[in-house]
Amino acid sequence: DTAVSQTPKYLVTQMGNDKSIKCEQNLGHDTMYWYKQDSKKFLKIMFSYNNKELIINETVPNRFSPKSPDKAHLNLHINSLELGDSAVYFCASSQGLTDWGDTQYFGPGTRLTVL
Amino acid sequence: GQNIDQPTEMTATEGAIVQINCTYQTSGFNGLFWYQQHAGEAPTFLSYNVLDGLEEKGRFSSFLSRSKGYSYLLLKELQMKDSASYLCAMNYGGSQGNLIFGKGTKLSVKP
Questions:
Q1: Best of B41, B48, B95, B103 to disrupt the A interface by mutation (most A CBs within 10 Å)?
Q2: Which residues contact B81 (CB under 8 A, 6 or more apart)?
Q3: CA distance A68 to B9
Q4: A77: closest CA among A4, A23, A40?
Q5: Among A41, A42, A102, whose Cβ lies nearest the Cβ of B96?
Q6: Residue B96 — pLDDT band, cuts 50, 70, 90?
Q7: Cα B15 from Cα B89, distance rounded (Å)
Q8: What is the mean pLDDT of residues A14-22?
Q9: In Å, how far are A95, A98, A102, A106, B46 from A27, measured between CA atoms?
């Protein structure tokens, strides 16, 4: 039973295209996240949603738009892809605890290559 | 602002003990996480510290000193499968789940 799943695992596309990455969690968690891990392996938060509401929106180009149809899903749509978007994108989820120790669990990642 | 730092690479021998350090600066500190990431895989949760002291979980232990802005991950009886990147991440005040990750320490375990 996969806890946090992402599709696709690999995505190769041309500059200028629009693409989406899907994420689903079956842990019953309230909060979901998108992270970007670049070629230097630096993992950086992009967005987080709690019960379908946006709560973190770091400095990310407008071309990136998250969409949460329900609390078990958080999809990432990217418009007008650029070379610099090439990275591994990780989805994660957590219970959404308001106090300490809200552990995040990561999906397997989507390796995006923009040519 | 927030800042978190850890060594880029470390090498150790199978069966040995290794300590991976992490220093951080932030306001509104809510705890420190350690994650393990094997090449090409997702980060997986190892430990969480919010109070000063040592937390032990089998071969892995994690230590925190809030006054010094310092944590370490201690790995004992190293195995080849422990070769991975180890990421420290601080949870800071503001929105829930705000984690800032360090750049990771790539640990290579040699026979």
A1: B95
A2: none
A3: 37
A4: A23
A5: A102
A6: low
A7: 27
A8: 97
A9: 8, 18, 14, 11, 18
Structure tokens at B7: 């060594």
Residues A21 and B31: their CA atoms lie apart, in Å, by 30
- pLDDT band at residue A17 using 50, 70 and 90 as cut-offs: very high
B95 touches chain A (CB under 8 A): yes
Sequence-ordered list of residues with C-beta below 8 angstroms from that of A61, at least 6 positions apart, any chain:
none
Question: CB-CB: which of B37, B50, B99 is closest to A104?
Answer: B99
**Which residue carries 């806890």 as its tokens?**
A3
B22 or B95: which carries more pLDDT confidence?
B22
Strand spans (E) along chain A: 4-7, 10-13, 19-25, 31-37, 43-50, 53-57, 64-70, 73-78, 87-94, 105-106, 110-114
SS3 A2: coil
Please state the rounded mean pLDDT for residues B92-96. Answer: 63
**Other CB atoms within 10 Å distance of the CB of residue B69:** 18
pLDDT 10s digits, A70-87: 989 999 999 999 999 999
- Tokens coding A55: 């709560």
